């Protein structure tokens, strides 16, 4: 099969690789759409030692089951594989499983390929009226759904349901959409890239600013750099909540003194639970996220160029979806 392989810093090769072989309880899936995630970009830049080269990246996938009694079933993929038996899994907090694995990280190859294998419990059926490109958004939307849910759970009931989202990429936009779906009517996105800012305003109907100066009860950092953490620290209202999703860099920016003196809750958020993923997929199928027409489709064979374009800030759309069969 063909795959896009991470071969070293800023180096991707489109080449033939061995077909994956399903293990017990797994299905072989023909990947029909797979998104480029910020974590894929971190690996591409050599910033993620959890993803050493050579490796097939990609974990935002949707496709069709091949073979077996469910042959032909359309599915979206929850890429987070967990043990199912530890205390975290039994409590419905599978994202905290100590044995968790995710495709695109050893020992599991990713979905920038024509085929991938996944356990049946990680597959959510996709109705016929939903395209594979939209179905592939379930994973990034679930990340933001989880963060929005945790932020709202932590918000004191006396505070207004008003939010500031730092970062207008796919995760930031998804966070804004998830908050809106959860009845937060006042959401503003902060995005420094002028092209993306205009795209979000014109094509996604979002309120977007280059810089924010007004404090908010909820601040979601969908970038995760020292500078964005400093902004989140400064703009969270006393008694408010910061939900941190981004993994841009490890340290710096967080004003722990202000968080302490103003009783600001800081919530680290990682991935999603199985229930979050299912709830997100259902919200997509029901249209609660809107049209979800803010994606750009490219062939997997042009994946290296897509990464290069993202690297130099030349992509206005929040999400590039790759087609492994073009």
Task: Explain what this protein looks like in three dimensions.
The strands form four sheets. Strands 3, 5, 6, 9, 10, 17 and 18 form a seven-stranded mixed sheet that branches. A six-stranded parallel sheet has the order 13-12-11-14-15-16, with helices on both faces. A three-stranded antiparallel sheet has the order 2-1-4, with no helix packed on it. It has helices at 38-44, 87-90, 132-135, 138-154, 170-181, 194-204, 226-235, 256-261, 274-286, 303-311; strands at residues 2-8, 11-16, 26-35, 55-56, 60-66, 74-77, 80-81, 101-102, 115-119, 123-125, 162-166, 186-190, 207-209, 216-221, 236-244, 265-268, 295-299, 319-323. α4 (138-154) crosses α9 (274-286). It has two domains: 2-137 and 292-323, Quinone Oxidoreductase, Chain A, domain 1 (Alpha-Beta Complex); 141-268, NAD(P)-binding Rossmann-like Domain (Rossmann fold, 3-Layer(aba) Sandwich). 29% of the residues lie in helices and 28% in strands. The mean pLDDT is 96. The protein starts with a strand and ends with a strand. The protein contains ten helices and 18 strands. By secondary structure, it is an alpha/beta fold.
């Amino acid at each position: 099969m063909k795959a896009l392989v991470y071969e070293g810093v800023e180096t991707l090769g489109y080449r033939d690789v061995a077909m994956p072989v399903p293990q017990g309880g797994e299905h072989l899936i023909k990947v029909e759409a797979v998104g480029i995630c910020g974590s894929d970009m971190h690996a591409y830049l050599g910033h993620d030692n959890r993803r050493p080269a050579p490796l097939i990246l990609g974990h935002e996938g949707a496709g069709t089951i091949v073979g077996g009694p469910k042959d032909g079933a359309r599915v979206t993929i929850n890429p987070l594989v967990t043990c199912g038996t530890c205390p975290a899994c039994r409590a419905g907090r599978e994202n905290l499983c100590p044995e968790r694995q995710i495709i695109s990280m050893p020992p599991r190859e990713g979905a920038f390929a024509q085929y991938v294998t996944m356990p049946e419990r990680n597959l959510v059926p996709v109705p016929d009226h939903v395209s594979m490109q939209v179905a592939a958004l379930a994973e990034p939307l679930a990340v933001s759904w989880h963060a929005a849910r945790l932020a709202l759970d932590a918000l004191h009931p006396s505070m207004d349901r008003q939010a500031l989202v730092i970062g207008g990429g796919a995760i930031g936009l998804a966070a804004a959409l998830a908050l809106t779906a959860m009845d937060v009517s006042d959401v503003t996105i902060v995005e420094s890239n002028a092209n993306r800012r205009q795209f979000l305003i014109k094509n996604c109907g979002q309120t977007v600013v280059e810089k924010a100066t007004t404090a908010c009860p909820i601040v979601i950092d969908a970038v995760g750099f020292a500078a964005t953490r400093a902004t989140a620290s400064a703009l969270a209202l006393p008694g408010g909540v910061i939900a941190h999703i981004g993994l841009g860099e490890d340290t710096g920016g967080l004003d722990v003194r202000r968080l302490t003196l103003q009783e600001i809750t800081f919530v680290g958020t990682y991935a999603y639970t199985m229930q979050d993923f299912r709830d997100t997929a259902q919200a997509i199928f029901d249209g609660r996220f809107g049209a979800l027409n803010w994606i750009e489709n490219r062939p997997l064979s042009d994946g290296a160029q897509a990464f290069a374009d993202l690297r130099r800030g030349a992509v206005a759309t929040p999400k590039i979806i790759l087609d492994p069969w073009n």
